[in-house]
Amino acid sequence: MEQAIINKAEQVQKLQKEILELQGFRPPLEHEWRDIGLGLMNEAFPNKVFPVATVHEFVSTSAEEVAVTCGFISGLVGALMNNGACLWVTTKRRVFAPGLKAFGVKPDQVVFADASGNKEALWMMEEGLKCNTLASVVGEISELSFTESRRLQLAVEDSRVTGFIHRHTQKPVAHIACVSRWRIKPVESSSGCGMPGVGMPSWNVELQKIRNGKPGAWIVNWSPNGFRVTRADIGRLSVPAAKTG
């Protein structure tokens, strides 16, 4: 009886692995499997590790959210770059390149591409995501259809590049093919020494959808050593989560 239960559990585990691979969640390769410092947040991800070789969506609705989202994405890019480079595509450059050093990103490892419009930006992103010499591609755009997002997701399946789409829009966000949707909001920082002043960045990080994972919300601080998750509120979102794909 006990052996039958074990065999059944192994079959379920194998089936779950096959489903994840079909949906673009192949287990990270040996050189990709590393902890990027997200701590408690890892419990929300399939395979218990931040999904690489896939495309993540970030949504901002205000200038403040745009700024803090760029900061959070920069932290992720810095943790994933290793010896690779990043392509950062935008129609309106908002990132101050020297400021990327604070998030562990060397500005000379980032190639900024300024597109004339959304259509050209999407083309640049797709071509970048096909290039396996890049570590990541960031795209700041306003609109994205399901078909366009599907093309981006297909582009990374062979290249193993990780994509980040940052949308600044006031419109309701539609369902797209990205494996996750994030919303980053500013949190008051502390100098950490009891004295007045501005401290390191702090964020309210909402994972509103994650395919085969657990949506949730966390308070995340940035430090010279990287991310520091100080509180986990799994399942408590200030904005209703979209249906997972």
Write structural notes for this entry.
There is one protein chain. The protein has 245 residues and is α/β, with parallel strands linked by helices. It has one domain (38-234): Rossmann fold, CATH 3.40.50.300. Helix content is 27%, strand content 27%. It is built from four helices and nine strands, in the order αβαββαβαβββββ. The protein has helices at residues 2-22, 63-81, 118-129, 146-159; strands spanning 55-60, 85-90, 110-114, 134-141, 162-168, 180-186, 202-210, 216-223, 226-234. The chain has a nine-stranded mixed sheet, sandwiched between helices. Strand 8 (216-223) and strand 9 form a beta hairpin. 33% of the residues are buried. Mean pLDDT is 82; it is low at 234-245.
Shape: globular
Summarize model confidence as the mean pLDDT: 82
| End-to-end separation | 36 Å
Assign the CATH architecture. Answer: 3-Layer(aba) Sandwich
Largest β-sheet summary = 9 strands, mixed
- H/E series: HEHEEHEHEEEEE
CATH topology: Rossmann fold
- Provide the gyration radius in Å: 18 Å
What are its keywords?
9-stranded mixed beta sheet; disordered C terminus; 9 strands; 245 residues; 27% helix; alpha/beta; Rossmann fold; globular; 4 helices
